């Protein structure tokens, strides 16, 4: 195999890459070319599986079976030109050439015999299986104090034989994360590491270790765990990093792939363990706290729906379109009655614009014929979290009431735990979950069915009863027992023998949700059958091709959900009413004068203006010209960087309490991060002189790293000054950030979130007493 790979590298260097990358070093280009070639091979092999499925259904069974026996190594050995590998029109030709060589008995087959004109599928495949060069700047929040190795946990790799797993693991992994990066890791001894936490957490760790991100691996399926090729300039080693992981189940699932995948009998195991950065319990605690604060600040939702968020958004948009469509009355009777007229009659009968959910294409076509259609956005609040998104929509019932529904996207396994706990502890009492599940073969279930189980096992084996379903009772299959796994890779032959007689369906989240929501929350799970466990033709690996089968059941369920709750239509365009009227009035005055300034800069000006009693435009203009403009990234970077300096002090000894007693600008939200930050800190109940002596080395390091940006003064203990102090100790993390988020932002009705690219966003969350409520998004 080494010989083959050496030939492959020589071939790649000779023919060159398709893309010029002047910004990359010569070695980066070589590494990227290797990866790109393997990604193209992975894509071609994945396509060949789809081609085999098609031929199997079109009287070419023997050819289909032979194509399935072509291995990725067979394709790589041919050293196909990269241009051909990246040209979908050439794929059948390449596959046929390998088929002729490996199985001479099929030499009579021609391109016409294996023709498959599924251009849409080929086009979608070209959007994935790519490696895009990327240059991430060093995080400004990381100072010289933070540089150095970052702590990680060593995790052993489970002993798992891919052949024992019931689904086609190779095909599944190819679509979800690609196999190519694991092949490359196996062939070149690259390590694979896993990062719990946000994208920003990952970037800070990389900056601390002074490593570089070379490229991002783009997958065929949507994947919220970004995958990067990383380089360490000191050791000259490359590695792959899976990021934005929010639960231990996801870590286990991703780690298992290292043992499952083999390339020429070699696995991607540089060591007997992998590096896992971060801690799932800490991630869950942070997420639960953030979500709990958000849910308590927002008005309570009348209904929470977890899962199928994108589909629900489309259904709500469709209902909004239908509410504007006015059918031609001349088409309302007789055989010439139009489709839209029939739908209009359906709306009249049910009293709900959601009653035409399954006819969205008809509604959209008619809507687009309108002279002045008004496409509305119905989300009045949305928040992007690392593992999921949250949005709120206002809906009008048939009797004229306004209700608030909260929609949360699907998650993986224990990622739902902090969400469930935050919902329960914020008083939410009505939750519907719509997920996907595998039906157990022989239980009368097929892809596309919708089930509402009567019982669910938890991850630790407890059997819990589930609420009787109230939606879709005319088509939903009921009464099943639901099993739980942490990954589809758990579904082995041994697992099947144990659970086959005990369960009817299996998935990852319902047990966690039921257990953590508790008995007082109304919780109804509905599961769309995506595959049949143990079936060759309805396996999870081919689920993407069967998505159309699930769509009908999904839409019927959503239609029932809205109609049975008496929902007439979505509503939009409600004016925001603020609980902090003085703050909001001043903020919007400044926003009118300087709309281009970042929200954080405008908030700082708002605080200054209110404290100085400014009211006229002239006074505000003078203030704006005096204060330098800044953005949220600079602010948060400085707060995190300075927090690192304080942590250097607090971590010297455990059990010592520190108190920030001076630094009014930070405490009241008027600090401009383009100016120095002056802080006065008390250490325990000791004197300033003694504290300076004990922490002399740490203070010198802080001074060296921060320069004049942070002016830190240790002062004598004074009990009177501790009344409004910010306290921290050796267990505290990012103390200045926590203060800004928990005090300044909350006072102004804002919450912070980290987006999918590691950027900082602030969202305005206003709660009012009485009247209509709406939340604006400040970006």
Give your account of this protein's structure:
This protein has 779 residues and is α/β, with parallel strands linked by helices. It folds into four domains: 2-200 and 210-234 and 243-278, no CATH class; 288-571, Rossmann fold (3-Layer(aba) Sandwich); 581-626, no CATH class; 632-748, Beta Polymerase, domain 2 (2-Layer Sandwich). Helices cover 40% and strands 18% of the residues. It contains 27 helices and 26 strands. The strands form four sheets. Strands 8, 9, 10, 11, 12, 13, 14, 15, 16, 17, 18, 19 and 20 form a 13-stranded mixed β-sheet that branches. α2 (26-56) crosses α9. It starts with a helix and ends in a 15-residue tail after the last strand. The relative contact order is 0.09. Residues 9-22, 575-579 and 767-779 have low confidence and may be disordered.
The profile of the biggest β sheet is: 13 strands, mixed
For this structure, the CATH topology of the largest domain is Rossmann fold
- Gyration radius, rounded: 29 Å
**Total helical elements:** 27
Please write the CATH class name of the largest domain.
Alpha Beta
Low-pLDDT stretches are 9-22, 575-579, 767-779
Give the overall form.
Answer: globular
Number of strands: 26
> Which bin fits the share of residues in helices?
40-55%
- What distance lies between the first and last C-alpha atoms, to the nearest angstrom? 52 Å
Architecture per CATH nomenclature, i.e. the level-2 architecture of the largest domain: 3-Layer(aba) Sandwich
Relevant CATH superfamily of the largest domain: Nucleoside phosphorylase domain
- How does the helix and strand content classify structurally? alpha/beta
């Amino acid at each position: 195999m080494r010989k083959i790979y050496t030939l492959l590298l020589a071939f790649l260097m000779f023919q060159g890459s398709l893309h010029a990358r002047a910004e990359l070093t010569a070695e980066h280009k070589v590494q990227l070319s290797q990866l790109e070639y393997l990604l193209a091979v992975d894509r071609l092999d994945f396509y060949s599986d789809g081609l085999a499925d098609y031929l199997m259904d079109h009287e070419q069974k023997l050819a289909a079976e032979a194509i399935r026996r072509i291995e990725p190594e067979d394709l790589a050995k041919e050293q196909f030109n990269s241009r051909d590998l990246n040209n979908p029109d050439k794929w059948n030709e390449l596959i046929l050439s390998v088929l002729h060589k490996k199985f001479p008995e099929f030499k009579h087959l021609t391109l016409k015999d294996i023709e498959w004109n599924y251009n849409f599928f080929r086009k979608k495949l070209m959007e994935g299986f790519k490696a895009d060069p990327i240059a991430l700047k060093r995080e400004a929040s990381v100072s010289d104090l933070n540089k150095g190795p970052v702590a990680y946990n060593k995790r052993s790799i489970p002993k798992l034989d891919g052949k024992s797993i019931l689904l086609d693991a190779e095909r599944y992994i190819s679509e979800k994360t690609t196999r190519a990066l694991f092949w490359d890791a196996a062939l070149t001894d690259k390590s694979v590491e896993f990062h719990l936490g946000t994208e920003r957490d990952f970037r800070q760790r990389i900056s601390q270790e002074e490593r570089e991100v070379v490229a991002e691996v783009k997958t065929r399926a949507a994947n919220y765990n970004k995958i990067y090729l990383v380089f360490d300039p000191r050791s000259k080693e490359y590695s792959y990093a899976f990021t934005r992981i929010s639960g231990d189940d996801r870590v286990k699932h991703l780690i298992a792939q290292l043992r499952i995948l083999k390339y020429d009998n070699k696995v991607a195991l540089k060591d007997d363990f992998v590096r896992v950065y971060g801690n799932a319990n800490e991630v869950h605690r942070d997420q639960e706290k953030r979500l709990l604060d958000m849910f308590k600040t927002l008005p309570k939702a009348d209904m929470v729906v977890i899962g199928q968020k994108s589909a629900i958004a489309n259904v709500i948009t469709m209902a909004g379109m239908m509410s504007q469509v006015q059918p031609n009355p001349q088409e309302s009777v007789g055989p010439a009655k139009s489709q839209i007229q029939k739908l209009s009659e359906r709306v009249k009968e049910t009293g709900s614009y959601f009653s035409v959910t399954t006819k969205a294409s008809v509604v959209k076509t008619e809507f687009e014929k309108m002279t002045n259609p008004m496409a509305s956005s119905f989300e009045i609040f949305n928040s992007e979290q690392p593992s999921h998104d949250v949005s709120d929509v206002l809906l009008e019932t048939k009797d004229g009431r306004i209700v608030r529904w909260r929609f949360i996207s699907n998650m993986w396994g224990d990622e739902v735990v902090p969400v469930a706990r935050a919902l329960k502890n914020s008083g939410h009492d009505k939750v519907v979950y719509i997920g996907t599940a595998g039906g157990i073969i022989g239980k009368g279930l097929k892809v596309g069915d919708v089930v509402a189980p009567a019982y669910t096992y938890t991850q630790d084996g407890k059997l819990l009863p589930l609420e009787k379903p109230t939606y879709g009772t005319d088509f939903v299959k009921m009464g099943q027992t639901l099993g739980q796994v942490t990954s589809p890779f758990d579904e082995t032959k041994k697992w099947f023998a144990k659970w086959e007689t005990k369960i009817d369906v299996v998935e990852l989240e319902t047990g966690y949700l039921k257990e953590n929501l508790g008995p007082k929350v109304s919780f109804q799970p509905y599961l769309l059958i995506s595959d049949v466990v143990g079936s060759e033709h309805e396996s999870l690996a081919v689920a993407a091709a069967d998505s159309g089968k699930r769509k009908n059941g999904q839409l019927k369920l959503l239609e029932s959900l809205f109609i049975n709750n008496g929902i007439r239509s979505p509503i939009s365009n409600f004016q925001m009413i603020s609980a902090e009227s003085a703050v909001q009035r001043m903020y919007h005055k400044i926003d009118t004068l300087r709309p281009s300034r970042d929200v954080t800069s405008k908030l700082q000006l708002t605080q200054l203006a209110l404290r100085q009693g400014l009211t006229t435009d002239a006074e505000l203009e003078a203030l704006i010209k005096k204060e330098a403009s800044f953005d949220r990234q600079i602010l948060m970077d400085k707060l995190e960087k300075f927090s690192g300096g304080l942590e250097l002090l607090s971590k010297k000894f455990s059990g010592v309490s520190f108190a920030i007693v001076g630094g009014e600008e930070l405490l009241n939200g008027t600090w401009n991060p383009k100016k120095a930050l002056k802080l006065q800190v008390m250490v325990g109940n000791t004197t300033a002189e003694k504290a300076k002596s004990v922490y002399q080395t740490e203070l010198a390091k802080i001074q060296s790293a921060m320069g004049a940006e942070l002016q830190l003064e240790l002062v004598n203990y004074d009990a009177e000054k501790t009344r409004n102090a910010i306290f921290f100790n050796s267990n505290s993390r990012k103390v200045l950030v926590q203060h800004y988020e928990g005090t300044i932002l909350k006072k102004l009705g804002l919450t912070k979130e980290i987006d999918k690219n590691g950027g900082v966003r602030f969202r305005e969350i206003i709660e009012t007493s009485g009247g209509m409520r709406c939340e604006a998004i400040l970006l």
